[in-house]
Amino acid sequence: MGNFKGHALPGSFFLLFGLWWSVKYPLKYVCRKNKNACYFGSRAGFQRLEFIEGIVKAVFALIGMIAEQFVPDGPHLKLYNYEEKHWDHLMNWQHATMYLFYGISGLVDIVAHGTNALPVALDRMMLSLAVFIEGFLFYYHIHGRDMLDFHVHQLLLVAIFGAAFCIFLEVFFRGSIVLEMLRTSLCILQGSWLWQIGFVLYPPNGRLEWNQMDHNNMMFLTMCYCWHYAFAFLILAVNYTIVSWVVRSKIKQAQSVEMGLLKTSERDQESEDEI
């Protein structure tokens, strides 16, 4: 993760899940009000989505762990260098540990929604723990860094611990669209900010490096962080509007078809009465 690609990869994972949730939860909310017009309004429909999501989460986590271990300069499952007598590539091991807990969260999703072996609420509990572990590892991951490096990761921690607390509340207030959308916004923020960190600390294509000790850079990035969050809410607003429009259009279309069939049956009945 000590390069641009290492930040872009997990950032892409978070962005993909955030974008998916920004469609899934508005769809769930709108369909819940119109169960007859939307298949996913049923409990079975959303359980299937949760099951598939768990599989994707577990696969992404496995890809992350393999990438951290077997990149050319990775540890290749070697934790301690006995020849030089020091820990080997601890940064990669920390990131692999983060992916491990997201993988466990995915497996819990699969079991909880694919069988009756686990309480359904355990999926949110495990996801909350996975996000907390991510923040816990990052907190001890940034000690001793340059000022700007420390600051951009410190801002990331705000989104991580905020998301962990939000998901923990979902254990007790499951189905709350407010908490689900808040969690989605923080997930998108994590993803976009990881990309931003990559551009700041490891500028691609030979771009000029940021001055790590310039206080103005720190002020700008703090403001930029707020812009990222505003962008996350813009994505939520756009996707919510599109989903609502599509579902309502489908409902009106279904109602028009039903009215047409009703009128046809009434005319047929009148014809039979006349005969």
TrEMBL record:
<protein>
    <submittedName>
        <fullName>Sperm equatorial segment protein 1</fullName>
    </submittedName>
</protein>
<feature type="transmembrane region" description="Helical">
    <location>
        <begin position="227"/>
        <end position="247"/>
    </location>
</feature>
<keyword id="KW-0812">Transmembrane</keyword>
<dbReference type="InterPro" id="IPR006904">
    <property type="entry name" value="DUF716"/>
</dbReference>
<feature type="transmembrane region" description="Helical">
    <location>
        <begin position="91"/>
        <end position="112"/>
    </location>
</feature>
<dbReference type="GO" id="GO:0016020">
    <property type="term" value="C:membrane"/>
</dbReference>
<dbReference type="InterPro" id="IPR042127">
    <property type="entry name" value="TMEM45"/>
</dbReference>
<feature type="transmembrane region" description="Helical">
    <location>
        <begin position="6"/>
        <end position="23"/>
    </location>
</feature>
<keyword id="KW-0472">Membrane</keyword>
<feature type="transmembrane region" description="Helical">
    <location>
        <begin position="124"/>
        <end position="142"/>
    </location>
</feature>
<feature type="transmembrane region" description="Helical">
    <location>
        <begin position="154"/>
        <end position="173"/>
    </location>
</feature>
<comment type="similarity">
    <text>Belongs to the TMEM45 family.</text>
</comment>
<keyword id="KW-1133">Transmembrane helix</keyword>
<dbReference type="Pfam" id="PF04819">
    <property type="entry name" value="DUF716"/>
</dbReference>
